[in-house]
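Work through this:
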Amino acid sequence: MKELNLDIFSKVSKLDWIELAKKQLKGEDPIEQLGWLSDKNLKMDAYYDESDIESLSDQIEFFKSIRPFHWKLYEQVHVHDESVANSNALQALSGGCDGIIFSLEHQVDFKKLLEEIVLDICDISLTSSFEIEGTPPSLRGFLLTSKQATALANNTSESQVDFITTILNNHTSESHFLRNAASDFFLEVASIRALRFLLSQDLGQDTNKIQIHTTVPLHQEEDQQWFFNSTAGLASILGGTNSINFSTANGATRISRNVGNIIREESGITEYTDQCGGAFYVEVLTHKIIEACRSNLKHRRDD
C-alpha cells in the first residue's frame, strides 16, 4: 500500500479559516454566525484545531490511561409471567446478549425466573417499582430501586449536563451508574466521557471499576427507533459505556439486539478505549460538559 505524503498540503491555521470564512460571510464574524448551542446552552464553535486542546492535556492523558475493555450487551425483559420471561431471557442470551435486565411488575419466584440461566457467565440485573423480596445474593449486575427507576424513566429528555449533575449529586458507594442515551451523536460521546472523568477525578472512583450502563430509550417517532438505536448505540459505545441495552418500539427484540451484535462484531472497536479521544470537537465538548456539571454542583451545594 502506497504511503500518503501529507506534506504536499499546506498547513492551515484556525486564523486562516476565520479569515476565509469572514470573507464568505461578507465581513460577519464566523465564530458568532456559525456557532451553535449544544446541551444546556453550551456555546460551540464551527471550527476547532489543535490549539483548542492545548490546555486539556490532563483530560486527554486521563482517557489514554484507561485500560481497554469489552462492553456488554444487555436486553430488558419485562416480567409478567416467570416462565415466559425466562424463555425470553434464554433466547436473548443465546442470541448474543451478555446479560438480562429483568423489569419486575410483581414479586416473583426467582427459582422459576432464573431456571437454566447460568449465573456465573452472565449478568442479571433487576428493576422494579416496588421493594423486591427474596433477591438472590449471587446475581451480578445492578439492582435498580423503585425510586431510581422512576428518576431514570423521567430523565429521557433532560439535558445531559443536568442528568450527569443529578447522578453526581446522588452519588453513593455503588459502582454502577445508569443513564439514558442522548439523541445528539457527539453529545452522547462526550457525555459518557465527562461522566467517567468526573466520577474518577472529582469523586475519587477507581477509573477501571466504574460501570456505566446506558439505555437507548424509546424515540418519540416509532419508525425512527431503528435509526436511533444505531446512532445512539454507536455513540454510547464510542464514548465508553460499559454496557448497553436497546429499546424496541415495534417488531422483534431480536432486531434491537442485533444492532449491538453488528456494532460489536463488524465495527472493530472492541479492542480499544476512547476511540474519539484527540478529536478536537469531542475533547472541547467533553471539557465544556465537565465544567458545566462542576458549576451546577457548586450552585446546588451553595443552595
